[in-house]
């Protein structure tokens, strides 16, 4: 590649990177602003203050909302990683009657938009008395058809000879799955885990429908309470959103190598 093309490519990527990171930096800067300065696009507050942080942490239920989101995102991520991996392995490496039909049935659920599932979920929640509970927030995300599909594709690449060697060594099928197959798909697990965590951490539609008690709000629903028809507390919204990014950043920095490798291998763009 010529120097000119390299220069153009780097310029375009730099501009794209700045456009992507600007809203994030503005969110943090706005959380340190007060008064009319909030509506200024400047990234440097005129009179920086942590007043909004103290108000959010001391005068609202923010910590409860934070805990609720963390519990819901952590449990659903753990559930998806375990069950989707197990089901993906079953579809990829075990033979049983009706396997292809069941896999197509699972894939077909990917064609149904989440918004169309809300009504059956809501009816089910009311029928079984799950409303206003952690379970009502958890159950729609405990398994994922996309995760099952992703895991199956990765397990297809695991050599059958390796699994057969495990059987000869006396491992049962779950032991082969856990000790021989799963270690070979760690990048895919990291990618699936971060996308599942992000999806549940940022979920708004289902939590705002199924929960109406403030102590059960998740972060997105709680932050929405800072805005109304006649008022918008943008400083509190930006402060809460800034704090809410901390767990996601921590997870990314810990698992960034596996996440990037998993995204590269799966071809996932976002």
Automatic annotation (TrEMBL):
<comment type="similarity">
    <text>Belongs to the binding-protein-dependent transport system permease family.</text>
</comment>
<keyword id="KW-1003">Cell membrane</keyword>
<dbReference type="GO" id="GO:0055085">
    <property type="term" value="P:transmembrane transport"/>
</dbReference>
<feature type="transmembrane region" description="Helical">
    <location>
        <begin position="70"/>
        <end position="89"/>
    </location>
</feature>
<protein>
    <submittedName>
        <fullName>Carbohydrate ABC transporter membrane protein 2 (CUT1 family)</fullName>
    </submittedName>
</protein>
<feature type="transmembrane region" description="Helical">
    <location>
        <begin position="134"/>
        <end position="155"/>
    </location>
</feature>
<feature type="transmembrane region" description="Helical">
    <location>
        <begin position="101"/>
        <end position="122"/>
    </location>
</feature>
<feature type="domain" description="ABC transmembrane type-1">
    <location>
        <begin position="66"/>
        <end position="255"/>
    </location>
</feature>
<keyword id="KW-1133">Transmembrane helix</keyword>
<keyword id="KW-0472">Membrane</keyword>
<dbReference type="GO" id="GO:0005886">
    <property type="term" value="C:plasma membrane"/>
</dbReference>
<keyword id="KW-0813">Transport</keyword>
<dbReference type="InterPro" id="IPR000515">
    <property type="entry name" value="MetI-like"/>
</dbReference>
<dbReference type="InterPro" id="IPR035906">
    <property type="entry name" value="MetI-like_sf"/>
</dbReference>
<keyword id="KW-0812">Transmembrane</keyword>
<dbReference type="Pfam" id="PF00528">
    <property type="entry name" value="BPD_transp_1"/>
</dbReference>
<feature type="transmembrane region" description="Helical">
    <location>
        <begin position="236"/>
        <end position="255"/>
    </location>
</feature>
<feature type="transmembrane region" description="Helical">
    <location>
        <begin position="7"/>
        <end position="29"/>
    </location>
</feature>
